[in-house]
Amino acid sequence: MDDDDADYMQGSEDEADEEGSADVENMYYTAKSKKEDNPEQALKEFRAIVEKEEEKGDWGFKALKQSTKLLFLTLHRPAEALQTYTELLSYTKSAVTRNYAEKTINGILDYVGGSKSGPVEVEILERFYEATKAALAEAKNDRLSAKTNLKLAKLWLDRKEYGRLQKILQELQRATIGDNADDQAQKGTQLLEIYALEIQMHNERRNFKKLKEIYNASNNVRSAIPHPRIMGVIKECGGKMWMGERQWNRASEDFFDSFKNYDEAGSPQRIQVLKYLVLANMLTGSEVNPFDSQETKPYKNDPQIKAMTDLVDAYQRREVHAAEKILRENKSTIMDDPFIKQYIGELLRSLRTQYLIDLIKPYTRLELTFLAKQLNVDHEEVEELLIGLILEGKVEGRIDQVSMRLELEPNLQKKRYAALDKWTAALESIHTTVLGKNQSGQRGDFGFGLPSEM
Question: What is the structure's pLDDT at 68?
């Protein structure tokens, strides 16, 4: 017995007994027993059950359900499966309970859109969904109709059928925004589901302008109780958007929110987003280890995360060579992700810059070839890094391009001591002023608890 048959039998046994349908029940289970060994005969016997019932009933519904599954998954005859499915939909008005009908419809649409039976033509998918939507509209089942449209939208997104996806998203938005239902939470929740699909589409198509519009719109939805997976998707795309704008801190915040939501939903995507969080955190230059938080700590030694953990340690120790080695040895867990890969160059540049600053501190003059050897890069890249540091004021010096040498400002230490002397003189001036006022009889205001001079 199928699980859903068992679920439905609990609620229909009494009715079946009252209708005296024991013979039909026996026919059903006899036909079902032949599904694997003789599917063609099973089909004939399921059809006999449908024809035997004078009025549409639950056994006819079950027989059509089994026939649809046989035709689609076992015999690979989707056109005939569509016929039995369309006939089954006519039973959903009164022959079976709404919950059982919804469960059956969802189950059929899942395997029609899945890969169990191999690739399915787009036209076949559309015909199954159109038949479903027509039946639900006739039954005025708006809730399941919306769920069916969302399921179809997800299917088009997975297949990268963006034209079809946009069409159905527009249809969903019109229905949701135009809905005057009192349940604002349900309306807001559905709107976030639509935004989650749309934001993924714009992210995949790299339309960052539209992505930001949808992201901002999703943040303005107030009355909603979304599934955490939905918020995980929205925040993940938001984090990628901020990364594209080089706003590392905001990206880090969104990736952290995304990770928490995926973790709550039990989604395996939490591991990938945790990698994005680690990447963004390193790009911020933060000294805080992202695995110190209560939420991320349990994943610190996960095999998929271990390489990122080691990379964080190398980054915080400014060990550029160790970081490069980790990247080389963990290609599958780090570099194979296209999103991470596009920012690794920036991460290494940041790490090399920090390493370079620490390296040149004790010197007043260095050969560019020496620096290039230390960083394991060519001298053109070293020169580019140094020019950036000089322009940003992080290094005081100049590059002698004739001798290919970095000349650091020789009186840099003197400037530092001069600044310190100036600061000390200012403090002494304040101290003298305070003492002078104390002597003028204002000890109560400015004495700071010091004894008066004799």
Answer: 95
Distance CA 120, CA 78 (A): 9
Residue 123: count other Cβ atoms within 10 Å of its Cβ.
8
pLDDT(12) > 70: no
Q: Which structure tokens are listed for 446?
A: 């400015």
Q: What is the pLDDT of residue 217?
A: 93
| Environment class of 4 (CB within 10 Å of its CB; exposed 0-12, middle 13-18, buried 19+) | middle
What is the CA 407 to chain-centroid distance, rounded?
48
Of 272, 221, 274, 276, give the one whose Cα is nearest residue 248: 276
Residue 314 token pair = 């190398």
Judged on CB neighbours under 10 Å (0-12, 13-18, 19+), 230 is buried
| 48 Cβ neighbours under 8 A, 6+ residues apart | 27, 31
Unique residue bearing structure tokens 């009889």: 441
**How high is the pLDDT of residue 443?**
46
Evaluate whether 50 touches 85 at the Cβ level (below 8 Å). Answer: no
Question: How far apart are alpha carbons 186 and 175 in whole angstroms?
Answer: 13
Q: How much is the pLDDT for 117?
A: 58
Q: Which of 32, 153, 132, 21 is nearest to 87 (CA)?
A: 132
pLDDT at residue 453 above 70? no
147-180 burial, b for 16+ CB within 10 Å, e for fewer?
A: bbbbbbbbbbbeeebeebbeebbeebeeebeeee
More reliable by pLDDT, 452 or 32 = 32
Polymer length in residues for the chain:
454
- What is the chain's Cα-based Rg? 34
C-alpha distances out from residue 33 to 2, 39, 244, Å: 12, 9, 57
Question: What are 136-150's pLDDT values in tens digits?
Answer: 888 888 888 888 999
What global pTM score does this model have? 0.75
Residue entry with tokens 């005025």? 140
pLDDT tens figures, 288-301: 888 888 999 999 88
**CA distances in angstroms from 399 to 376, 381, 402, 403, listed in the order given:** 19, 13, 9, 9
- Mark 377-412 as b/e (b = at least 16 C-beta within 10 Å): bebeebbebbeebeeeeebebebeeeeebbeeeeee
Q: What number is the average pLDDT over the span 13-36?
A: 74
